[in-house]
Give the backbone structure.
Amino acid sequence: MVSEKDVKKKIFSTFADVAGSLGYSPLHGEIIGTLLVANKPLSLQELAKETGYSSSMISLSLDLLEVLGVIKKIKKTADRKLYVQLHGDLLECLKRAIIIKVEKSIEDSLTGFTANRKELDSLSKEERENLEKSMAVLEIQIKRLDMYIKLLSKISLP
């Protein structure tokens, strides 16, 4: 027989796996899963208890989730605790997280090409020309990807 605890663990694990597959911490996914299951704002301490992570780890992860628009931090009247609730459309937030990650990778790659070109001067002419051609092809493809990501960011989800 499946218990509520087992189902919660599966939900948390699923969200953690998605976050991990995108290069984010599994904790980000667990926080989202915890808030989804709770279906109400939770305090930092409640999130720590549910996920098994420390309050300081939760706090650090919340900052990124807030930037991505996944969560919103709130204060309750006459309560000094910080509360967190899901905010916005999860699929839209997932799209934004993917786009941010890919844009960062594109930026790093293009910056790396610039740095690598400077280092080619120490190679023979033939080696340098071969590597420059390869880098030019990669740079074109990465710029194509950048255009695609910019288009994707403008598409509204159904």
